Amino acid sequence: MRLSKMIFAVAALMFVASPAVFAEEAYLNYKTYCMQCHGMHGKGDGVNVPAMNILPRDHSDNQYMMTRTNTQIYKAIKFGGPAVNKSVKMPAWGDTFTETELRELVGHIRTLCCEKELIRGVNFK
Amino acid sequence: MKRVLLISFLVAMISPALSSAGENGIEILNTRCAYCHNLKGPAPQTIRQLWKRDAPDLFYAGNKYRREWLVSWMQKPVRIRPAGVNYLRSINSTPTKLLNPKKGRKYDVLWGEVLKPLRHEPLTKAEAEAVADVLMTYRAHDDLVSGMMLDTNKKVTLDQGEVLIDKVYGCESCHQIEPGYGGYTGSELYTAGSRLQAAFMLSYIKRPKNWDPKIWMPNGHVKPADLQKIVNYLILLSKEDFDASK
Questions:
Q1: Which of chain A's residues have a Cβ under 8 Å away from the Cβ of B83?
Q2: CB–CB of B179/B190 below 8 Å?
Q3: Residues 57-86 of A with CB under 8 A from B
Q4: What is residue B112's predicted lDDT score, i.e. its pLDDT?
Q5: Which residues contact B3 (CB under 8 A, 6 or more apart)?
Q6: CATH of domain B142-245
Q7: Beta partners for B196?
């Protein structure tokens, strides 16, 4: 009985802890690579903005981000802006991140903009 | 007989001087540089290690820098990356709503140490020469520069180079092509041609991750012909006198 409880507790802990670890990695990746243009809080207000003639996307802009699918965000990160008809100023990060990291980053960006919609169960594909 | 004696005397006088120069350089590196610079490798393998980096890695300095630039820079050190080596430490991203909305900033700004002149101990000419000699022997990445040859026939004008850097590959978002013109988080490009070896620039731009696995410079997938043009442009750009326009 005690053993089964232990196994259940470990399984539950893994279920709870893993997303938190992924979230931290995605947050660190965002802070390390995206923050220089998109800003620490994802508002498109990074330190390099004054040098840019095209402003980076404000990831907290709920209205706009609701119109983007997860696939489009994934493509923009992996293949760069031109892959989704956006500026070359958004470089391709496919060589920097692994597939898992890319997907986690999409998830992190959703937490910056569409948390209410995620709670409502909106499917961004 | 006299000639043999003279030669042996000269050899006896010169060889300790040469060896002591090398030893002196190693001693300076170990006692005064190793605290901040990574002299032995490898480069940071995780983001957490990356954020602990205080100064550029030097274990492949012989593959990267031009000796004459090293000697002159070590005597008069100046900042090369406007936001510092680790830009997370030098960015103020206080949410705008916490500031006066009328006077509040519109984007993240640099703050702290990077707004002051670089704090880096200057060396004397003799020390700089000795350290540069040792640094040029640190060639951990010979494999990455082998076969990297600059094609000087792929020449570009300054205007054509700027189009490549800004419009085609978007490098200017992070790098400055003249003082105050360009982004803050990358190293300045207007001194790159005098600072770096051509083979290093070719290899690094081609795939930065090969040199520094977690670095925040992305792989721009630069076409081979454009790669040659960009490096030729950077060399041309480094010959410009930016003080003349002040």
A1: 47
A2: yes
A3: none
A4: 87
A5: none
A6: 1.10.760.10
A7: B65
pLDDT digits (tens, 9 = 90+) for A30-48: 999 999 999 988 999 999 9
- Residue A25 has a CB neighbour count (10 Å cut-off) of 17
Please give the pLDDT value at position B8.
53
Interface residue of B48, B50, B174 to substitute, partner A, most A CBs within 10 Å:
B174
Domain range for A41:
2-120
Q: Give residue A34's pLDDT.
A: 96
Burial of A70 (0-12, 13-18, 19+ CB in 10 A): middle
The ipTM is 0.84
Determine the average pLDDT of the residues in A6-27: 60
Chain B nearest CA to A20, separation (Å): 17
Domain count, chain A: 1
At residue A11, the pLDDT reads 52
Domain regions of chain B by residue span: 14-77+121-140, 86-119, 142-245
CATH number at A93 reads 1.10.760.10
CATH architecture for residues B14-77+121-140: Sandwich (2.60)
Residue A125 belongs to some domain of the structure: no
Among candidate residues B168, B154, B172, B177, the one with its CA nearest the CA of residue B231: B154
- For residues B34 and B52, what is the distance between their CA atoms, to the nearest angstrom? 14
- The mean pLDDT value for B106-113 works out to 86
The reported pLDDT for the residue numbered A87 is 94
**Do the Cβ atoms of A95 and B219 come within 8 Å?**
yes
**Quick check: is A37 in a domain?**
yes
Q: Could you tell me the pLDDT band of residue B107, with boundaries at 50, 70 and 90?
A: confident
**A39–B167 CB contact, under 8 Å:** no
B97 CB burial (10 A radius; 0-12, 13-18, 19+) = exposed
